[in-house]
Amino acid sequence: MGGNVNRFERTRQDHSLETAEDYVELIDRLIQEKGEARAVELAGRLGVSPVTVGKTVKRLVREGFVTSEPYRSIFLTVKGKKLAEESERRHVTVLEFLVALGVPPKTAEVDAEGIEHHVSKQTLQAMRDFLARQTR
Question: What is the value of pTM for the model shown?
């Protein structure tokens, strides 16, 4: 029974990190596109309520990924920028791998969004190795 508790705890931690990664990736993208990231834009793009965004942003501030003040833009910290870049690299690798396997690009994009958060370092490296062999 103890093994299940650890597994469920890991699942909760994975989902918490997945949410953080989704938010910092989107914040980074919005800053690149528009020069700023605002809670209302995050809510619209993520399909969640502004209240949910507010709670999540507060958590991300506590965890050191973003800075924010009420009714102001949200900015990534160095730690948040690093997480966004790592998440984006994983996403691109998974997406390119799926496309190389013959998955249609639109389907690969949707699937990569879920897989990127749960792929192990070993599997990700195997995907990169596979892609490198394909380009030779």
Answer: 0.80
